[in-house]
Specification:
Blueprint (H helix, E strand, L loop, with lengths): L1 H22 L22 H15 E3 L5 E3 L6 E3 H13 L3 H13 L10 E3 L4 E3 L4 H18 L7 H15 L27 H10 L3 H21 L38 H12 L2 H17 L23 H10 L6 H13 L6 H14 L14 H4 L6 E3 L6 E5 L4 E6 L5 E6 L5 E5 L6 E9 L2 E9 L1
Antiparallel strand pairs: 1-2, 3-4, 4-5, 6-7, 7-10, 8-9, 8-11, 11-12
C-alpha cells in the first residue's frame, strides 16, 4: 500500500511538472495571427494544421536515447538535417517543448567543426553525409529565435545564445565572403553555385535585428531577390519558376551536373521557393516578395488554369515535366496565392492542399504541415525578432512595472528622459511615450486586446525590455 501511495505521489508530481511546463509557453497553439499583409483563405482552420501536425509527429518523429528525437527521412533508417530543422519549426510553433528540445539536442550532437549539423545521419547516430546544408541551419536558427520568445532562455537550454552562435556560423561559413551570396553548404558553393529554395529573406531580416547586425543581413536578403530575378530573366522563365540550382548571375551552373536535370528545372528544390518568399511578404510586406509571389500565383491561376492542374515539375518556360499532384508543389503555390490578389484562387488552393493525403511521404507531408501552419496564422514573426538582442540583455538601469498582469492600466517607473515603446505580438507599435523629467507614469492598454505585449524602454544608449501581460 505504501509503495502504491508513493507511486501515486510521483505520478501526481510528474503531471504537475508537465502542466507547469505547458503553461510556461508564451503563445499556445493555435496562435491564429493576422499577418496584416496579404489575403487569408476563407476556409482556413487551425484544426487542419493541427491534424496534419499530429500525423507528421506520429509517422516521422522517433525517440532516440537521452531525450533526443529525430525525424525519419524517405529512407526511415536515415535522418537529414533539413528534417530536423523542419521539425524544430513545427514543434516550436506548436509549443511542443519536449520534442523541440530533443530535436535541437540531436542537431547539436551531430555537428561538424564549423558548428553546423552534418547533413545525413544513420538513425540516431553515425555520420552518413558530412558537412552542412544551409537550409537546415537557416530554419534551425529561426526556430531557436521563436523558442526564445516561446519559453525564454533561462532554462536548461539557452535558446538565445544558441541562436546567436548558429547565426554566426551561418554568416562565417554559409554566406560567401564579400558578395552576400548564400552558399548551399558550409563546404561548397557561392557565386558559382547556389540554391534559391534556401533563400529565406524574412529570416535574414530577423537575424539582423536579433544580433544587431541589420546592414549585413539586409544585404543577404537583398541579394536573394537579385539572384532570383536574374535567374528568371536569364532563362526567360514563366511566372516565378526558378531553377533548382544556378549561379549568382542567374545562369545555369556547370557545378550542378549531379542534380536532377542538371539543376536547370523547377523540381523538388525550387518548389519550396514560393513558400519562403511568401513569408517575407506576410511578415514584412516586402514589395519584392509580393511581386515574386504574385508571379507564382498568376502562373497557376492563369497559365495552368487553377491549382488542380499543378504537377511536380516544370521547365523554366512553363512546360510540364512532372506527373504527380502533391503537397510540395501545391502548398508552396498556395502560400504564394496570399499575395496573388485573387480570393477565389487562394480559397481553392487551400482546399486543394488540405485535401491531399500523403501521410507516409516524409517530404510531401512535412511541407504540407509547414504550409498549413503559415496559411492558418500559426507561422508568425515573434515580436522579440523585431528588436535587437541588446534589448533583452541590457539591464544596467532600473525599470519598475506593476501590476503585471493587469486589466489594462500599468504603473511604470523609469529613469528620466526615457522613451517608451509598446509592441504587440506582431511587432507593431501600439503605444509610444516620451518621459522627459517624469519618472513615474501610467501605461494605458485598456483599449487593446488581451494578450502578450512587449515594452521597450530606451534611455540614451541603453535599452531594457519587458514582457507585459494584458488580461
Amino acid at each position: 500500500m505504501k509503495k502504491f501511495l508513493k507511486l501515486k505521489r510521483i505520478f501526481a508530481l510528474t503531471i504537475a511538472i508537465l502542466c507547469s511546463s505547458v503553461s510556461a509557453q508564451t503563445r499556445p497553439f493555435p496562435a491564429n495571427i493576422d499577418y496584416g499583409n496579404g489575403l487569408t483563405a476563407s476556409g482556413k482552420s487551425s484544426v487542419d494544421a493541427e491534424n496534419s501536425y499530429n500525423i507528421w509527429k506520429t509517422n516521422f518523429v522517433e525517440a532516440c536515447t537521452n531525450g533526443r528525437f529525430r525525424v525519419k527521412f524517405d529512407n526511415s533508417s536515415e535522418t537529414v538535417s533539413e528534417g530536423i530543422a523542419y521539425g524544430m519549426l513545427l514543434t516550436v510553433y506548436k509549443a511542443d517543448k519536449v520534442t523541440f528540445d530533443g530535436l535541437w539536442q540531436y542537431y547539436k550532437d551531430n555537428r561538424n567543426g564549423n558548428g553546423v549539423m552534418n547533413w545525413k545521419i544513420n538513425g540516431c547516430s553515425g555520420v552518413n553525409g558530412q558537412n552542412g546544408a544551409t537550409d537546415a541551419e537557416v530554419d534551425a536558427a529561426m526556430a531557436l529565435i521563436v523558442a526564445d520568445y516561446q519559453w525564454g532562455s533561462s532554462g536548461v537550454i539557452n535558446y538565445r545564445l544558441d541562436a546567436e552562435n548558429l547565426i554566426n556560423a551561418i554568416k562565417t561559413h554559409e554566406v560567401e565572403a564579400g558578395t552576400y551570396v548564400l552558399k548551399p553548404g558550409d563546404m561548397f558553393g557561392g557565386s558559382q553555385l547556389t540554391n534559391a529554395s534556401y533563400f529565406a529573406p524574412a529570416y535574414f531580416r530577423v537575424f539582423g535585428t536579433f544580433t544587431n547586425d541589420t546592414a549585413y543581413w539586409n544585404n543577404v536578403a537583398s541579394q536573394c531577390y537579385t539572384i532570383i530575378n536574374a535567374n528568371l530573366t536569364a532563362n526567360n522563365a514563366a511566372g516565378g519558376l526558378v531553377s533548382d540550382w544556378c549561379q549568382a548571375s542567374g545562369a545555369y551552373s556547370s557545378q550542378s551536373g549531379g542534380y536532377v536535370n542538371q539543376g536547370q528545372t523547377y523540381k523538388y528544390d525550387a518548389a519550396r521557393t514560393p513558400w519562403r518568399i511568401a513569408v517575407d511578404y506576410l511578415w514584412y510586406g516586402n514589395n519584392s516578395a509580393k511581386v515574386y509571389a504574385k508571379k507564382c500565383s498568376d502562373f497557376v491561376r492563369v497559365d495552368l488554369n487553377g491549382t488542380a492542374n499543378i504537377k511536380d515539375g516544370y521547365n523554366q518556360n512553363g512546360s510540364v515535366i512532372g506527373q504527380w499532384h502533391n503537397a510540395t508543389f501545391v502548398g508552396a503555390f498556395a502560400c504564394a496565392a496570399t499575395a496573388g490578389e485573387n480570393q477565389p484562387h487562394l480559397d481553392a488552393s487551400y482546399v486543394d492542399l488540405n485535401s491531399l493525403n500523403e501521410p507516409n511521404s516524409y517530404f510531401n507531408h512535412t511541407l504540407k504541415t509547414m504550409y498549413l501552419f503559415l496559411l492558418t496564422g500559426n507561422f508568425y514573426l515573434p515580436p522579440t525578432g523585431t528588436l535587437s538582442n541588446d534589448s533583452f540583455q541590457n539591464e544596467d538601469f532600473n525599470v519598475s512595472l506593476y501590476p503585471n498582469p493587469s486589466k489594462g492600466i500599468f504603473t511604470l517607473t523609469v529613469p528620466s528622459s526615457s522613451k517608451i515603446e509598446v509592441v504587440n505580438v506582431q511587432g507593431k507599435i501600439v503605444l509610444e511615450k516620451e518621459m522627459n523629467d517624469v519618472l513615474t507614469t501610467s501605461i494605458d492598454l485598456s483599449s487593446k486586446a488581451a494578450g502578450i505585449y512587449y515594452m521597450k524602454v530606451i534611455n540614451n544608449d541603453r535599452t531594457v525590455f519587458r514582457k507585459i501581460v494584458l488580461e
